[in-house]
Write a structure and sequence with these properties.
alpha/beta; Rossmann fold; N-(1-d-carboxylethyl)-l-norvaline Dehydrogenase, domain 2; 2 domains; eight-stranded mixed beta sheet; 13 helices; globular
């Protein structure tokens, strides 16, 4: 069985939305990283994305400018799965969220991976433990990252029932070494922690929008001016401690809140936007209008603000209330 000290070479399978940022994180942690892409065009896009992100990290003082080339050089690219996983100690799968695609990839991995290689999936919506071949389950875990993965600290970790606890512990330690906040879950549930919380919030957000109680800007402003910054300091359950658990209990006893009816149905406000082809910044319109906005510059501005927010968050995480 592999130990933490045995992890030297990490393979990232997939170079789409998440892959380059995840590869960057491991490379910044000092690991040799191999990324698998299906085509030369995807490889070149991944290289450009990695380089740009590293330069942004240098501009923000997160890494030394003179280290950019060395970190970039620790990431290699292969066009076949076999070449990408050769010599790997830890494999991080980040391919498209389609069951058939994952079934195909994992069937291939089951044939070529040694039994002591730890395999992690970044799947968000699928139960990977129902998809991978049975032979892989003793080495299968999940490391669920959030976009953009090189910036968002959280990674949720959960192992298969067949995998040893040591593999999940190794993943947590590995992620921590690379500067992430790794949260170990006791058992698997669809949506993990944060996605489930966000889905509950979404239910309320769309209820308020669909029933005309307020608009998108009011919801965002209210959230940014209240519980979101407070949560950086107190989280959710410690906030309840500070407020008094009797108050929280009374909210339930007094039925201060009732769930919206039909909360699991497609929200009308969301459906209307999607049907109109307004998908957010990728199309120029969503809940907000981005017409005439330089989207790439907007992303850079977002990233720089995220750097500032998460620096403050780390300060509080290191010295909690």
């Amino acid at each position: 069985m592999k130990t933490f000290d045995d992890i030297k070479r990490i393979t990232v399978l997939g170079a789409g939305t998440m892959g380059p940022g995840i590869a960057q994180t491991f490379a910044m942690g000092g690991y040799e990283v191999v990324m698998w892409t299906r085509s030369e065009s995807t490889r070149e896009k991944a290289k450009a994305s990695l380089r740009t992100s590293l330069e942004t990290f240098a501009e923000e003082g997160e890494i030394k400018p003179e280290n950019v080339d060395a970190i970039f050089a620790r990431t290699h690219f292969e066009l076949t799965v076999e070449d990408a996983v050769k010599g790997a100690d830890f494999v991080m799968e980040t391919i498209v969220e389609k069951k058939e695609a994952k079934e195909e990839l994992y069937a291939q991995l089951a044939q070529i991976l040694p039994k002591d290689v730890i395999v992690a999936s970044n799947t968000s919506a699928l139960n990977i433990f129902e998809i991978v071949p049975e032979a892989l389950l003793p080495q299968q875990i999940i490391c669920h990252w959030y976009a953009p993965p090189q910036l968002i600290p959280l990674v949720e970790v959960v192992k298969s029932e067949q995998a040893p606890q040591e593999y999940a512990d190794i993943a947590v330690k590995l992620l921590q070494k690379c500067g992430k906040t790794a949260v170990l879950m006791k058992k698997f549930i669809r949506g993990y922690i944060v996605n489930r919380l966000q889905q509950c919030l979404n239910r309320e957000v769309f209820y308020l929008l669909d029933n005309g109680y307020c608009d998108a800007e009011a919801i965002d402003l209210a959230a940014k001016a209240s519980f979101i910054p407070r949560a950086v300091v107190l989280g959710l359950l410690k906030r309840a401690d500070f407020g008094g658990l009797d108050m929280t209990a009374n909210n339930y006893r007094n039925h201060s809140y009732t769930m919206p009816e039909h909360g699991d149905e497609m929200p009308k406000s969301l459906e209307a936007l999607v049907d109109a082809g307004n998908l957010g910044i990728k199309t120029g319109k969503g809940f907000y209008d981005y017409t005439g906005v330089d989207i790439e510059a907007l992303k850079v501005k977002r990233d720089k603000q995220l750097f500032e927010v998460f620096r403050l968050a780390k300060k509080f995480l290191d010295d909690p209330v």
